[in-house]
Automatic annotation (TrEMBL):
The chain crosses the membrane at residues 5-26, 46-67, 74-91, 97-113, 120-138, 144-166, 173-194, 214-238, 259-283, 303-320, 332-355, 375-393. Pfam families: DUF1576. Keywords: Membrane, Transmembrane, Transmembrane helix. Signal peptide: none annotated. It comes from Fervidobacterium gondwanense DSM 13020. This is DUF1576 domain-containing protein.
Length: 413
């Protein structure tokens, strides 16, 4: 079922890209490959809808085929990985720049004597650093030294990713985004020292809203309907996923079934799309990428109950800080800030709001550390928010227990 799902959504993106792209679609695809793509670079704006959707569909198809080649039994993490790649293939990843990172991770697996499947998902999510490939390899022609550097970056992702997980203990769903941010921070620092860093940019598409709205809503309604069909055209047992905190790795395909997972993917996609339109932001490469990621993790930890407090916390930040609620960084912070959903799921509604609020502030500043070369900037921010909050939550819990204990002793006496 999962293979059928992944192949189908890949072909939907490819067919839609060809349909809206016309005769210039290959030129658009080439332009995407050659253009700098660090945050925020909307492929819709620099190349066109056709090339962007074709790029996304091709990448989802390619990474699904890798599952087949390696004889992987895909689950919820597979859905999250492929849909995240597909989403970011609308603003940062392309059919060239992801592969050196993947190759670096595979090389690490071979060197330490592990099967490449061991760190397969690290390689998938590690494509967060794909803009570094474009910057170091294609910025001034094809640079082989730059290619070697990117391979080395991919090589060190697995050990760093394993360590990063111990820091936030699975409460930041975008663990490799946090890892990529740490790597990107050092890479950015080195590039800045030699005046080789990229300049800040914001390329943001605002047109074609009716077409994109129809496509995105239809896409996620079809996913919801597919899940409902598998579930006997009923929402029965859907609420069973609400009992899970969402902490890594909460794989709904394994814990429940494909039907429940697909229903959740569709519902989260519709929620994300509606939010973007309700606040008056455009549907474009970055926002659809955010919606795809939010929905993809509907198979791996996120559900309406644990994302709602984080949504609310980021919105409170957006409504009270200096950034308009429909500004690019705040809209993306709401969509991607749901990386902190496990905090709400584990520790409750209030802590989820606090996590979202803190994220809305931190994400404004943290991108400058890696110069936008880590596409999962919200995952980087989310990691630090989790690091900051977890000991505070533990301290508050200890204080509360101590007060209760003292109160009990006083009443006992």
């Amino acid at each position: 079922m999962v293979y059928r799902f992944l192949f189908t959504i890949s072909f939907i993106f490819i067919v839609f890209g060809i349909a809206v792209g016309g005769f210039n679609i290959i030129e658009e695809l080439i332009h995407i490959i050659k253009s700098p793509d660090y945050l925020i670079t909307d492929y819709f704006e620099i190349a066109g809808l056709g090339g962007a959707f074709l790029n996304s569909g091709f990448l989802m198809l390619a990474f699904t085929f890798i599952f087949k080649l390696l004889k992987i039994n895909p689950t919820g993490v597979s859905v999250a990985a492929v849909m995240t790649i597909g989403g970011f293939a609308l603003f940062g990843k392309n059919i060239f720049n992801v592969w050196p990172i993947v190759a670096g991770v595979f090389l690490y697996s071979i060197v330490i004597g592990e099967n490449v499947r061991t760190y397969l998902y690290v390689s998938y999510f590690g494509t967060a650093l794909a803009p570094i490939t474009t910057h170091l390899v294609l910025d001034k022609g094809f640079d082989y030294i730059g290619l070697i550097i990117v391979l080395i970056i991919g090589f060190f992702l697995p050990p760093l990713g394993s360590f990063a997980l111990t820091l936030h203990r699975g409460y930041n769903l975008y663990n490799i985004g946090f890892t990529a941010g740490l790597l990107g921070m050092f890479i950015g620092g080195i590039l800045r020292a030699y005046d080789l860093h990229p300049e800040p940019r914001l390329i943001w598409h605002t047109e074609n809203q009716l077409l994109l709205s129809i496509f995105v809503y239809t896409f996620f309604y079809l996913i919801l309907l597919y899940g409902l069909k598998l579930n006997g055209w009923t929402f029965a047992k859907y609420k069973s996923i609400f009992k899970y905190s969402g902490k890594l790795l909460t794989d709904f395909v394994l814990l429940e079934n494909e039907a429940i997972a697909f229903m959740n993917v569709g519902i989260l996609g519709l929620i994300g799309t509606s939010y973007v339109l309700l606040v008056g932001a455009p549907l474009n490469g970055p926002t659809i990428g955010g919606i795809m990621t939010l929905a993809g993790f509907g198979a791996l930890g996120k559900h309406p109950k644990n994302i709602a407090p984080v949504f609310l916390g980021v919105m409170i930040g957006a409504l009270t800080n200096s950034q308009p609620v429909n500004s690019p960084i705040m809209v993306l912070a709401v969509l991607f800030g749901t990386t902190l959903a496990p905090i709400a799921g584990e520790f409750g509604f209030i802590w989820g709001i606090i996590a979202g609020y803190l994220h809305s502030a931190l994400v404004l500043n943290i991108g400058s550390l890696h110069f936008g070369m880590n596409l999962y900037n919200n995952g980087f921010s989310g990691g630090f928010v989790a690091l900051f909050l977890l000991p505070l939550i533990e301290a508050v819990k200890n204080i509360k227990n101590r007060i209760v204990e003292k109160w009990g002793e006083r009443n006992g006496n």
